[in-house]
Structure formats: C-alpha cells, structure tokens
Design brief:
The complex is a heterodimer of chains A (111) and B (113).
Chain A: E1 4-5, E2 10-14, E3 19-25, E4 32-38, E5 45-51, E6 56-59, E7 62-67, E8 72-77, E9 86-93, E10 100-101, E11 105-110
Parallel strand pairs in A: 2-11
Antiparallel strand pairs in A: 1-3, 3-8, 4-5, 4-9, 6-7, 7-8, 9-10, 9-11
Chain B: E1 5-7, E2 10-13, E3 19-24, E4 31-37, E5 44-50, E6 53-57, E7 64-68, E8 74-78, E9 87-94, E10 103-104, E11 108-112
Parallel strand pairs in B: 2-11
Antiparallel strand pairs in B: 1-3, 3-8, 4-5, 4-9, 5-6, 7-8, 9-10, 9-11
The chains are: A mainly beta (111), B mainly beta (113).
Chain lengths: 111, 113
C-alpha cells in the first residue's frame, strides 16, 4: 500500500537555484510529515518536519509546505548546494508514530 | 549520546535459513521500528516495538518477527529466508509521543542466495 508517493525519481538543478521536491499522500490520518536525507552507505537522517496544523515550516535553506486539502507536501531548498546531492525521502506518520516512506527522489546539484 | 547501532553490517544467507539482526536504540529512546529497503525503493515499514510489545505492523508475513528488550534494544528475526528478502534492513528509534523524527542506524545489508 503506497500511502506516500514521490513521483519524481530524480531531479537535477544548478548550484544556487531552487530545488523543489514533491510528495503526495493518501491516508488522511497522517498528522505529521517529515523529510529525510540519505547518503550512500548511511541511514536516513532527519532534515525537517511539519505538523498538520501548519502549512509551512522553515529551517535555514529548507522550507516544507503542506497542502492538506490536496494531500501534498513539498520541500524547497534555496539556494541549492552541491553538498545537498543525496536521496530525499518524504515520510508521514499518525498517532502511533509508525512512519511510512515514499520511494525517494535523487537530487543532484551541479556546480 | 550514542546513536542507533546495528549489527552485523553485512550478511549473506542461503534461502530457507533463518537470520537475526540486532539494533541498539539511541539513549533515551523507547520506541524502535524496523524497515526493509529494497534497491531503488523507500524504506518499507515492517513493525514497531514500544515497551517490549509489538505496536503496529506493516504488510509483512509472520515469518518476520521481532523482540524488544528492557534496555530498548531490539532484534529482527526472519525465518525461511527467500531471495526477495535481500535488502537493507534499517532500525530506527524515537521517543514515543515526541515528533522529533526517528534516528536511523546505518542498516544491515542482507543478501539471500
């Protein structure tokens, strides 16, 4: 059951430009959404999150937007840097904290 | 503060065998979840343990089982291994009720031949 979907397997952007990664979900019981970043041979690392009571959360260069009516969230990275190149996973959780992940988007930031 | 550690890092097993993977949760975390990540896919939720009880399970057969110990460390057991069980197995810990996100280990790469 793909409750969380990331429809773009890859994204390539130029250094300094904006990266926008998208995510859709189907389960209306999800009330917390997270983005994780994963480098090869490492476990995912927490990047930023947003509660369903908000529609935007910002942390430095990273901003997550949530559109509950559309069951859609996005991660904006501005400006993008080569070190941001990684696989980004969108995740969602409900009351019992069991997170469901999307398939990931591989971001490549070109110098 | 130590993070999440998993052992072993790599493992090769034969079809039909049984395997046990281990995870030490981050200090202060009482909830552990296990995920299977196949190549090119996102982590798939196997199950979660909270205070030594299974507390949620994904779409995995009963031959996937687990334990959580009083110190909150955990084991994932897989019986009757199949070729499709080859994947990266990730353990993640958190403190229940606090949405700070999970802390993941680096995973165990299981290959079934």
């Amino acid at each position: 059951d793909q409750q969380v979907k990331q429809n773009s397997p890859s994204l390539s952007v130029q250094e300094g430009r904006i990266s926008i990664l998208n995510c859709d979900y189907t389960n209306s019981m999800f009330d917390y959404f997270l983005w994780y970043k994963k480098y090869p041979a490492e476990g995912p690392t927490f990047l930023i999150s947003i509660s369903s009571i908000k529609d935007k959360n910002e942390d430095g260069r990273f901003t997550v937007f949530l559109n509950k009516s559309a069951k859609h969230l996005s991660l904006h990275i501005v400006p993008s840097q080569p070190g941001d190149s990684a696989v980004y996973f969108c995740a969602a959780s409900g009351d019992n904290n069991d997170m469901r992940f999307g398939a990931g988007t591989r971001l490549t930031v070109k110098p | 503060e130590t993070g999440v550690t998993q052992s072993p890092t790599h493992l090769i097993k034969t079809r039909g065998q049984q395997v046990t993977l281990r995870c030490s949760s981050q200090s202060g975390h009482n909830t552990v979840s296990w995920y299977q990540q196949a190549l090119g896919q996102g982590p798939q939720f196997i199950f979660q343990y909270y205070r030594e009880e299974e507390n949620g399970r994904g779409n995995f057969p009963p031959r996937f089982s687990g334990l959580q110990f009083p110190n909150y460390s955990s084991e994932l057991n897989v019986n009757a291994l199949e070729l499709d069980d080859s994947a990266l197995y990730l353990c993640a810990s958190t403190t229940r009720g606090r949405h700070y996100g999970y802390t993941f280990g680096s995973g165990t790469r299981l290959t079934v031949v």
